[in-house]
TrEMBL record:
<dbReference type="Pfam" id="PF01037">
    <property type="entry name" value="AsnC_trans_reg"/>
</dbReference>
<dbReference type="InterPro" id="IPR019887">
    <property type="entry name" value="Tscrpt_reg_AsnC/Lrp_C"/>
</dbReference>
<dbReference type="InterPro" id="IPR000485">
    <property type="entry name" value="AsnC-type_HTH_dom"/>
</dbReference>
<dbReference type="InterPro" id="IPR036390">
    <property type="entry name" value="WH_DNA-bd_sf"/>
</dbReference>
<keyword id="KW-0238">DNA-binding</keyword>
<dbReference type="GO" id="GO:0043200">
    <property type="term" value="P:response to amino acid"/>
</dbReference>
<feature type="domain" description="HTH asnC-type">
    <location>
        <begin position="11"/>
        <end position="72"/>
    </location>
</feature>
<protein>
    <submittedName>
        <fullName>Transcriptional regulator, AsnC family</fullName>
    </submittedName>
</protein>
<dbReference type="GO" id="GO:0005829">
    <property type="term" value="C:cytosol"/>
</dbReference>
<keyword id="KW-0804">Transcription</keyword>
<dbReference type="InterPro" id="IPR011991">
    <property type="entry name" value="ArsR-like_HTH"/>
</dbReference>
<dbReference type="GO" id="GO:0006355">
    <property type="term" value="P:regulation of DNA-templated transcription"/>
</dbReference>
<dbReference type="InterPro" id="IPR036388">
    <property type="entry name" value="WH-like_DNA-bd_sf"/>
</dbReference>
<dbReference type="InterPro" id="IPR011008">
    <property type="entry name" value="Dimeric_a/b-barrel"/>
</dbReference>
<dbReference type="InterPro" id="IPR019888">
    <property type="entry name" value="Tscrpt_reg_AsnC-like"/>
</dbReference>
<dbReference type="Pfam" id="PF13412">
    <property type="entry name" value="HTH_24"/>
</dbReference>
<keyword id="KW-0805">Transcription regulation</keyword>
């Protein structure tokens, strides 16, 4: 289902409580989730199942510590292109999607066409990424910004 085709799901307070708990710790047992939302296990399990089927819960993953894995450099890469034809866009998307260093990629409105969040070991590793990217797809202008400090990072969506 594409973003254009997604239907907004109506959530009640119990659904929001369940989702907030799972966003914080998806390893909580069904007993623990049920106890914290003040419901019994079967209705909570049915709600979680329905939220998965509706695509509200997309995945349950382990969030790893990049620094512990030696991926100490985070770059935000601003890309301007002079090309906007579908063939170029497809090549660009393909190049970006196959690179594990790219954690996020967004198409933007305004002066910058795309922004990438890239996680690598160091500046030399970023340069290898950059050289590989520009060898695959023509890019008008690239600006790389090194994050000096991560002030906030979360995967939790505001459910308020």
């Amino acid at each position: 289902m594409s973003a254009d085709q997604q239907i907004q799901v109506r959530l009640d307070d119990t659904d929001r409580k369940i989702l907030s708990l799972l966003q914080e710790d998806a390893t909580l047992s069904l007993d623990e989730v049920a106890a914290r939302v003040g419901a019994s296990k079967t209705p909570v399990w049915n709600r979680i199942r329905k939220l998965r089927e509706a695509g509200v819960i997309k995945a349950e993953v382990a969030i790893l510590d990049a620094d512990s894995l030696g991926l100490e450099a985070c770059f935000f890469v601003l890309i301007r292109t002079a090309e906007h034809d579908p063939e170029w866009a497809q090549r660009f998307l393909s190049a970006v999607r196959k690179r594990p260093e790219v954690l996020e990629a967004h198409r933007l409105a305004g002066d910058i066409d795309y922004i990438l969040k890239v996680r690598v070991r160091n500046a030399r590793a970023y340069d290898r990424f950059y050289q590989a990217l520009i060898s695959e797809v023509r890019i008008h202008n690239v600006t790389a910004l090194l994050s000096m400090e991560e002030i906030k990072a979360t995967t939790a969506l505001p459910l308020g």
